């Protein structure tokens, strides 16, 4: 074995029997053939992939169930929004409102799912302002597919008149 190793070092990575044994040994050693989950044994590539995917979706995905419940008698409440409150909640977003919210965020926090930090939007506000305003306009007019934005990071609730 030592002589083979010396030849391998001197002559390089030719397709020798030794080289193949090393690679195949590492492959066998680093391959997961089965997982034990409680009393169950999970085997097979497809089952292992499904189990790993489910595990990490459960770990990092949105919480299951409704964590915030309203009292059942809430719908019978006589409290209604005033016309002024309704106007405030359903009016389009203003540039000042969006800019104030954006600039109140800490610039050095972790970036969102697009991997762009808040600091970028703050420093480049004059450049990206029109696109950001258009995004909020589409959101307000229900022209934006919010499913992409809701994926485990943030939940946007569209304003609905009425």
Automatic annotation (TrEMBL):
Highest classification ranks of the organism: Eukaryota, Viridiplantae, Streptophyta, Embryophyta, Tracheophyta
PANTHER family assigned to the protein according to its UniProt record, in alphabetical order: REVERSE TRANSCRIPTASE DOMAIN-CONTAINING PROTEIN-RELATED
Protein name: Reverse transcriptase domain-containing protein
